[in-house]
Design brief:
The structure is a single chain. By secondary structure, the protein is an alpha/beta fold. The protein is built from 6 helices and 6 strands; from the N terminus they run βαββαβαββααα. The chain has helices at about 30-40, 70-80, 95-105, 130-140, 145-160, 165-175; strands at about 15-20, 45, 60-65, 85, 105-110, 120-125. Strands 3-2-1-4-5-6 form a 6-stranded parallel β-sheet, sandwiched between helices. It starts with 15 loop residues before the first strand and ends with a helix.
Length: about 180
């Protein structure tokens, strides 16, 4: 269960990023490392994976190992972080993006994260760390209403489009054609 919990954002100069995931090669953490080097005044809370990865050695990155994404952890993440980021190069429908959206944490990701075209998430530029860093920093330092509107919109999408009932109906409708 993923209740909507992100109702307040930190002050623009105190906003933090969130990353949940491993360091599997397709997660593209070398790109995230490049980006985070360019925005040393922005904190990234990283959950999952090893503290031995170069990303974890940056002074603006706080790494915690694997965690269970339950309501208690969700409350902690909602209080601490303001934008979930993912820079994968090939990651079909990562559930962490949907889980964070359900809680109300806005998401910014590359098209390789499984979503493209800017909807339902903010789209991070691929292959250009300078542009990506500026894009992320602009989102974090921008007005609350940009993040809040994305939070509300994405939560609504999670309830209407990205849920088990819709998923099962789509699968059943497709499979039933062959029965």
């Amino acid at each position: 269960h993923y209740p909507f919990m992100k109702t307040v954002f930190n002050e623009p100069h105190l906003r933090r990023l969130l990353y949940i995931g491993s360091e599997t090669h397709y997660k593209n953490l070398s790109y995230m490392t490049e980006i985070m080097k360019l925005i040393p005044d922005v904190q990234l809370y990283r959950y999952g994976g090893s503290s031995e990865h170069p990303l974890s050695h940056l002074p603006n990155v706080r790494t915690t190992g694997n965690v269970t994404l339950n309501s208690e952890m969700g409350r902690h993440l909602c209080n601490a972080c303001d934008l979930m980021i993912n820079v994968s190069i090939s990651d079909a429908n990562p559930t962490t993006l949907l889980e964070c959206s359900s809680w109300g944490i806005p998401v910014a990701c590359t098209p390789g994260s499984g979503y493209y075209g800017g909807d339902p998430f903010f789209e991070i530029p691929e292959s250009n760390a300078v542009l990506a860093a500026q894009f992320i920093k602009n989102l974090l330092r921008g007005p609350d209403d940009v993040l809040y509107k994305a939070s509300i919109k994405n939560r609504a999408l999670m309830q209407t489009e990205y849920n088990w009932e819709v998923f099962c109906t789509k699968i059943w409708n497709k499979l039933s054609q062959y029965l």
